[in-house]
Amino acid sequence: MKKLLLLAAAMFLLAGQSVLSAELTILTENLPPLNYVDNGVLVGPSVEIVREIQRRVGSEEEIQVYPWARAYKMALEDENIILFGMTYTKVRHDKFKWVGPLATKRDILVAQKGSGIKIKDLEDAKKVKRIGTLRDDTRGRLLQSQGFTNLEPVSDEQFNAKKLAMGRIDLWAYKIPGLRTVCDLADVDHTAFEEVYHLREIDLMIAFSKKTSDAIVQKWKTAFDEMVADGTIKNIQKKWNLKLEDDPFPEIKD
Question: What predicted TM-score, i.e. pTM, was given to this entire model?
Fold first, then answer.
């Protein structure tokens, strides 16, 4: 009986190790300034935070950059998928498992300076001809839920920056931080744009597919919480605020 108990305990431990060492697929999108591709290299404060978590938990998987719609579908349907930074919403709460936040953003509507567009409420925004959004992004979903029918989704926000600069859309649903960086990457003058409406303030998180084990999620959460406690997160945030003119963390003053 004692041998059987020892064998069962050993099998349990091996099963636990197998779960914790399961191969993960780690995804993100091109979402400056938090995670973006610069000269073929994935960079940004969210990338640095995730890689430090990986170092602490012993995860060696490469982070892959996918179009948002494809990455989101994988995170919804597949096993052991990590997708960052995903906007946390009540609608998404039960669809994923969560660690974070990585950052806080402000969703806004942007127009060309001198366009004459004045937005006092969402009903005014419904009257313009075209609003640029990102395909399957929460800003577009928010506007759709409010009855908008004038949305033009694209696969990359740099397209929206270019379309607004060329007058091919009237408004762009985007965010702060990030407006200046995505305009720079698209070779568009960000000073030609202005915020005309504030939509909301919301957190960006690390999302795990529902088919990811709780043990893996807890391991990542523990590492993240330790990084908050030991100052690693704050140091990364300060470093990137100094590095980028488009402050990723405008709430940090020192």
Answer: 0.76
